Amino acid sequence: MMPSRRAFTLIELIIATMVTTMVAATVVAIVGAVTSALAIQDLRSEAIVRSAGLQSHIGLLSLKTRMTLALSPQRVLLWLPSETLEESGSGSDSAFDRIDLVQDELHWLEFFQETDQSWTLIEWTVKAEAVPTDQSEVYFTSDGEFWDNLFVQLRDTEQLRRSPIASGLAAPEVSGVIADAPRFVWQTEQCCDNRSVGAEFAFVAIDGEEVLRADMRLESALAFFDRHPICTES
Amino acid sequence: MTLIECLIAMVVLTISASILVMAVQGGLSAQEDALSMTLAGTAAESRVADYLARDYNAIVSGDVTEPIGGIDTPNGDSFSASYDTMGRRTVIASGDLTVPDFPGLVVPGYSIDVTVFDTRNGETRNLVALQRFRPRTIEESAEETP
């Protein structure tokens, strides 16, 4: 004869249900907390790694840049003369006047807004192979409008190389107010005297209804600033 | 499953969950410190860039401390809320730089020391310390010579 198994009592079932409910509630709470923590971790990791990359990129450019030629909140033009400091610093060498487009002397940095409203930091450089030899020279001027027009002309004729440096950026918070857009910062608007360049932007992540932000301000001095003689004359 | 087995399972689950939470908390805390140090580095670099970019004659020796939450940009704007837990100390001292491999070579200039700090458990903690030297260039020396 088979032994008959005793069924669960009501008390046992109630306790089992309570324990299961408590464990389930704990697991759900932990999963929620861990998910939220991972979102924060993602934002922080991204901010740390990408800001280090950006800082290093801007630092390298500021090391090579002798002057800023045009400054606006969303676009700056850095001049990296191909001649040596000794040649360009004399103040009398015509080589410092001539800017060779095919020698990688001009670098535009631009904050560009994408269709999803996020911002991308782009570096534009001249495609040497796309520039006709008889149009490869421009001459120094402190007129920012000239450089803006040159940028538009080169970009529209596809003579510029577009290199995204950082994407998914957002407008920074400045003095307690969220700005309209990421922006470049500099020491003075006078390009002839400006000796630094930097950027303000933010990394943003959405966690449920909460918006997580990490605002950044990167700034770097032009290590080998070289004032053009025309600036001194003016 | 007996009640005892059920209770043991619950204890094991609770311990596992606690370990998971502690691990995540530890990671978060370490990452928060890493982000603070990254931000502190940018705040210090910003101050150094400000002094390196100034005219030599516009640099003045001094010891200035911006309190926690009071870090300003060179234009006088406040840094964003991400920097609210940090303060910054800037020490500028004039002095000559000597180069061991070049006896007799003396470069006049200013040493720029920037320290960014915060407080943790009531104690001040240095997050980043940067030191740079702003030399007086030949052109700047010539400008001073009558």
Describe the structure.
- The complex is a heterodimer of chains A (234) and B (146).
- Chain A has 234 residues and is α+β, with helices and mostly antiparallel strands.
- Helix content of chain A is 33%, strand content 32%.
- In chain A, the strands form 3 sheets. In chain A, strands 1, 2, 4, 5, 7, 10, 11 and 12 form an 8-stranded antiparallel sheet that branches.
- In chain A, β8 and β9 form a beta hairpin.
- The N and C termini of chain A lie far apart (114 Å).
- Chain B is elongated and about 95 Å long.
- In chain B, β2 and β3 form a beta hairpin.
- The model of chain B has no long low-confidence stretch (mean pLDDT 86).
- Chain B has a 4-stranded antiparallel sheet, with helices on one face.
- Chain B is of the alpha+beta class.
- At the A-B interface, α1, β8, β11 and β12 of A face α1 of B.
Straight-line N-to-C gap of chain B = 98 Å
Gyration radius of chain A, rounded: 28 Å
The rough form of chain B would be described as elongated
Number of strands of chain A: 12
Distance between the termini of chain A: 114 Å
Low-confidence stretches of chain A: none
Rg calc of chain B: 25 Å
Q: What fraction of the residues of chain B are assigned to beta strands by DSSP?
A: 25-35%
The largest interface is:
A-B, 47 and 40 residues
Structural class of chain A: alpha+beta
Could you report the average pLDDT of chain A, rounded to the nearest whole number? 85
What's the arrangement of secondary structure elements?
The complex is a heterodimer of chains A (234) and B (146).
Chain A: H1 10-64, E1 67-72, E2 75-79, H2 85-88, E3 98-100, E4 106-113, E5 119-126, E6 137-139, H3 144-156, E7 160-170, E8 173-174, E9 177-178, E10 183-186, E11 196-207, E12 210-221, H4 229-233
Antiparallel strand pairs in A: 1-2, 2-4, 3-6, 4-5, 5-7, 7-11, 8-9, 10-11, 11-12
Chain B: H1 3-53, E1 62-66, E2 87-98, E3 106-120, E4 123-135, H2 138-144
Antiparallel strand pairs in B: 1-2, 2-3, 3-4
